[in-house]
Amino acid sequence: MIRWGDSRMSKKELFRRIRRSKYFVIGFAIVLFMVLCIVLVPELSPYEPDVMNLKERLVAPEGLSKGLQGHVLGTDALGQDIFVRLCVGGRTSFIIAIVAVLFGAVVGTVLGVMAGYMGRTTDTIIMRVGDIQNGINSTLLAIVVVSVLGKSVVNLIIVMMITSWLGFARIVRSGVLQVSKREFISASRVLGSSDWRIMFSEILPNVSTSLIVKISQQFGHIILLEAALSFLGCGVPLPMPSWGTMISDGRDYISTSPWVVIAPGIALMLTVLAANFLGDGIRDVLDPKMKH
Fold it and tell me: Which terminus has fewer CB within 10 Å in the chain: N or C?
């Protein structure tokens, strides 16, 4: 049996719900395909992501007519293979998003549980700090932080954590405020359980569904924010490829060689779409009562 909050679900029932959720199946299929590409393609392709070949600049997409030995998605203005750069850039973006979302979720969850359960001064301080940050555009805040700390993958992860914890904190706080009023929480206090045990052993599991859905959806938001920063020149440092940088570099050739921009644009769109689909699918699977 698998436990989610107050409910228990058999593995058979879990897989039945997964199969019936179109959002989950579509989102998971897209994510799985992209993960396979970013893991396998750079290893199997004969091209390097940062090696220029001006003799083959702006080659049109050759599809799979030559397999991975050809330029599947064409080349850019420097003769670099777009498919390989797309996959290597996706690998970097996925790593940044996974680490940033996990750390942001941990920080936001801890602060959200404390704000919702302890209330009063603790709640006021945490939420007011969040309100101040919320009043600043996340992209602008990210640009300022990167400008101060410098361009690097580590600094990008720090930026994403700073901009993502608030969403997790608010969702968790809202759930904690509802769960903390239930009778089993009062019974735990009577039995002498400590506040920390009640917060993280009794209350937190009951808000896990909303938290998991938020993690999936935040993944797409982080991917989009990283691409936006790279597009503006404040993201992944060169010569590492990034979808945002590829779109920015290809703007001058969009009328003559549109594949230079279309390929990373579609990859970015599919990733964000898959993250949102997966989030909706997870919600439907774990808590059908939340289904719209």
Answer: C
Percent of the chain with pLDDT over 70: 94
> Which residues partner with 3 through β-bridges?
8
**Burial zone of 43 (CB within 10 Å; 0-12 exposed, 13-18 middle, 19+ buried):** exposed
Q: What is the rounded CA–CA span in Å between residue 227 and residue 47? A: 23
Neighbour tally for 47: CB within 10 Å: 22
pLDDT, tens digit (0-9, with 9 covering 90-100), for 61-105: 888 878 778 888 989 888 899 999 999 999 988 998 999 999 999
CA distances from 262 to 49, 232, 254, 267 (A): 18, 18, 8, 9
pLDDT reading at 227 higher than 80 = yes
Please state whether the peptide bond connecting residue 239 to the residue before it is cis, i.e. omega within 30 degrees of 0.
yes
CB of 117 closer than 8 Å to CB of 198: yes
Total count of residues recorded for the chain: 292
Predicted model pTM: 0.83
Mean pLDDT over residues 212-233, rounded? 87
For residue 108, give every residue at least 6 positions away whose Cβ sits within 8 Å of its Cβ, in sequence order, or none. Answer: 164, 165, 166, 167, 168, 169, 172
Residue 22 CA, distance from chain mean position: 20
Region at 120 (left for phi over 0; alpha for psi -120 to 50; beta for the rest): left
Task: Tell me the C-alpha distance between 3 and 190, whole Å.
Answer: 25
CA quadruple 28, 208, 162, 156: dihedral sign = negative
